[in-house]
Design a protein that fits this description.
Helices cover 32% and strands 23% of the residues. The protein has 158 residues and is an alpha/beta fold.
Length: 158
């Protein structure tokens, strides 16, 4: 029997974390990530919505939805956008993707290793919406259509 390779352990642990579903009322574990401008953000109890994108399709949904709402909309409504860029080769991310994101008018928390995004369920083509209250999960939604996402974002005005 072959021994388990040490480098497989993070993959196996990441898979186990990703498999755990979030339950309403559950407190999200704190994390700290850098945004596209290398400014740190730590998840806290003031956050109203956490949006998680695992792929470009999901990230593009948000960018298009915000085109009518304005880039400051997320911050004004205590929404944080988390982009999982761990599948992107590091040279591509650092030379092209992250510099392009610096032109966005909104903050993008970058998960370069997948350690944070893997905590939350979801598919690459859909944007995950986690509604929070004092750091606890209230509701989980998924979006694959810009119009539905825009309507949900506009609903934060109430």
């Amino acid at each position: 029997m072959k021994r388990l390779r040490w480098w497989l352990l993070p993959l196996l642990c990441g898979w186990m974390v990703a498999a755990a579903a979030l339950e309403p009322g559950e407190r999200l574990a704190p994390w700290t990530l850098l945004d596209q401008h290398d400014h740190a953000y730590t998840l806290d109890g003031d956050l109203q919505v956490l949006l998680v994108a695992r792929g470009m399709e999901a990230a593009d949904l948000l960018r298009e939805a915000l085109s009518e709402l304005g880039p400051e909309y997320l911050e004004r409504h205590r929404v944080v956008f988390l982009a999982d860029i761990s599948a992107m080769p590091a040279p591509i991310a650092s030379l092209f993707a992250v510099p392009a994101m610096r032109d966005y008018g909104y903050r993008v928390m970058l998960d370069r290793t997948g350690r944070v995004a893997s905590r939350y369920p979801g598919e690459k083509a859909e944007l995950l919406w986690l509604q929070l209250d004092a750091g606890r999960l209230v509701e989980e939604r998924r979006f694959a259509q810009v119009s539905e996402l825009r309507a949900a974002l506009k609903g934060l005005e109430r």
